[in-house]
Amino acid sequence: MQSDLYCMKKILCFLVLGFLSLQIYAQNQVVSPFGKNEFGIDVLDFAILRAFDVSYEHVGNPLGYGITFHGNPNSDDLWDIGYCFTPFVRYYFFNPKGYSGCGFYADGALKMFKLMRYSKKGFDMAFTIGLGIKVVSQKGIFLDFTIGAGRPFGLANHYSQEIVLCGGMVFGCRF
pTM of the predicted model, to two decimals? Predict the structure, then answer.
């Protein structure tokens, strides 16, 4: 019992010190020359899957959060996900310009999707993790490359995929 309590105290101290160091680090960042809201369209989904994928992100330092909506009315073609709503959180690191929402990032998301292909109809969810890079111009135009994967919860019993892939190339603007 004593060793469990000692271990919990160690973990708590580590988390508190880590949180305080992030707060101190955040004080040294440069303020972004443009707004903290982004709107983007995934051009890969549009070109390859003939689907639309729009996203909104509120960028902070070093965290950003947002939502993505994906719609594919032609889901019988290449992709069995018809509609998808994905809230996400991103942690930016190795920031070359010194202001928020730029550079490399790691993200986590909860993908909620409706299956539309052949006999695979139903609703499922998946936690996904990914990596990406975002490049922002001086005028606030950005290009975002991301790739990731996750595992479905299995809410749709007949859904046979073991892994859900996510990614894209988002083009948009910051306001």
Answer: 0.74
